[in-house]
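hey so u asked for the seq, here:
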Amino acid sequence: MAFTTRSLSPQESRVVLTLSERGQRETTRAEIVTLLGATPKAADHVIESLRHKGWLERASWGAYLLIPADQGPDALGYGNLLALASRITDPYYIGFSTAAAHYGLTTQHRNVIYVVTPVRLRGRRIGEAQVQIVNPSATKFFGFEPVDVLGYKVIISDREKTTIDCIDHPSLAGGVGEAASILATASRRLDWTKATGYLERIGSGALVRRFGWLFDYVKADVPPEIRNRLFRLADSSRRTWLGSNPANTTVVQNAIGYDETWRLFVNVTREELQGSVGLGRRKAVRKDG
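ran it, structure tokens below
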């Protein structure tokens, strides 16, 4: 979006100042019509001008975000893109690599925003970002909370659910290697009891086996009681795989292979996981003196 000038006409000032004084960061076409005491057509001209000048950004049909003056002409940054994407549908949460980036669990920033929702929608572009819609099973639509993003309320999966989602669908996290790195980075601040409760709620032994093998591989500091609880969760499930299914595709050359502990065939090379090996190990704090 190209911004021209942020100077305002009297009617435009009335809209911006009123919303700012109210502490509003969002508005609607109907509200602007009422605020101006004008016809819908006249209000549309004001809205279009405010969008052109960079004060309003359309979130959805008839709904807009106010871009505050202190954010200047570069206001359509990543945070505001998240706010815009969050207005596409409801219920929803921002998840996978997008949520991982928000928590600083990945250094890979992509021009894709993952919106998780039970609503069937097509993806769309917002600014420079592509919004990808992910429709989860009903048993996996939980584990999210409102987060303040530049003054806008955005629903994002929490740290534990983000990590589990990325392991469950590594293609939405940048691949198995990146999902492993996300787990390793998250493990230092992960609520293991909450994460285990989430895995119990999802009820997938295969996912537990992948989760367990990966936290062993990255050497995460997992409490013994949590490890035992996860073994019990996985116990009733069959052997499974990490990476591509070896029954449907060829085994990856130099794949790590079968792990007896987690009864998991790791169809991924050590090279792909190189960036995460041992990354979950807590660093000792050296005391001087």
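The two ends are 56 Å apart (CA to CA). The chain has three domains: 10-76, 88-157, 159-282.
lmk if thats what u needed
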